[in-house]
Amino acid sequence: MKILYFARFRQIIGRGADEIELPADVGNVSTLIDFLKARDERVAQAFADLRTLKVAINQNHTTLDASLVGATEVAFFPPVTGG
User: Fold this and answer.
1) Prediction pTM value
2) What count of other Cβ atoms lies within 10 Å of the Cβ of residue 74?
3) Is 10 a member of any domain?
4) What letter does residue 68 receive in the DSSP assignment?
5) What is the CA radius of gyration of the chain?
6) Which end of the chain is more exposed for a tag (fewer CB within 10 A), N or C?
7) What is the CATH number of the domain that holds 52?
8) Nearest alpha-carbon partner for 51 in 78, 80, 19, 74
């Protein structure tokens, strides 16, 4: 699965993407975040406050409890504002 990091998450983590194989017990976005935080301290730092985290699965905005079944890409980014 491709994991993408944007904006400040990319800056903190130090890279824009990871390509990973998920363990069987990672079934939704929340458990994916826990998995990523456990394997990389920079990800743990970037995702310390989940209130500032937005997520998309296969380029569709979703929630932290969304299933990863059929997902090929998950993107993490901060809330977006516009004018």
Assistant:
1) 0.93
2) 24
3) yes
4) -
5) 12
6) C
7) 3.10.20.30
8) 78
Residues 6+ apart with CB under 8 A from 9: 46, 47, 53, 76, 77, 78
pLDDT in tens, 19-73: 999 999 999 999 999 999 999 999 999 999 999 899 999 999 999 999 999 999 9
The range of the structural domain enclosing residue 37 comes to 2-77
Strands of 6-78 (E only): list them: 17-19, 54-57, 60-62, 73-77
| 56 located within any domain | yes
Residue, of 81 and 80, whose pLDDT is higher: 80
Q: What's the total number of domains in the chain?
A: 1
Residue entry with tokens 């209130």: 51
Give dist(CA 38, CA 6) in Å, integer.
20
- Tracing tokens 């976005």 back to the chain, one arrives at 29
Three-state helix/strand/coil letters over 14-28: CCCEEECCCCCCCCE
